[in-house]
Amino acid sequence: MDVFTAGIWKENPVFVMMLGLCPVLAVTNSVLNSLAMGIASIFVLVCSNALVSALRNFIPKQVRITTYIIIIATFVTLVDYIIQAVSLDLYNRLGAFIQLIVVNCLILGRAEAYASKNSFTKSVVSALGMGLGFTLALVMLGGVRELLGAGQLLGYQVFSTQFEPWVVMILPPGGFIVLGCWLLLINYLEQRKTSKLILRDKAASHDQLPSESFS
Description:
Blueprint: H1 2-10, H2 21-26, H3 31-54, H4 64-86, H5 88-94, H6 105-115, H7 120-150, E1 152-153, E2 156-157, H8 172-214
Antiparallel strand pairs: 1-2
């Protein structure tokens, strides 16, 4: 379970490891785009990690990176065709960023650092957790940007017609701004949590001192 949950929060690809920022900043101008990119990344991540783990004992070390890229590119091509067949409009909005999943350092990094060294089950579970963490980060960014940049969520109007959208939010600079705000909030909450644990440990050790001296 720790392998799965680590990728969602403790080792979140975006908010902790800062991986795959190119699609994070480019396609998160709406929740729908964020979800589509997240689901595509989950599919590629899980399938490529599963195959790399299954073949890890048969891939020569000298060509492992090339092999990983070929495996990843195969699944990216499959996803590319599926999205193109399901929704041409969504395919056009995501543009070349679907194909760029091939060189996403999150996908290739997990194949090299984890899937090639661990069992099939662990690799799949870890990939699923990382993929969900990546998708969560995309949706968190996309939700804020769509809400402030268009006054709506998933195409439904949230604010009144008098609301003046912040155009910068649907542009790449808006991605930097929202990402920075989320990182600030998350780091603040983590620091508060750490401070509380330190104070609790100090209080516990202080309470034990009188009893130890008495004994």
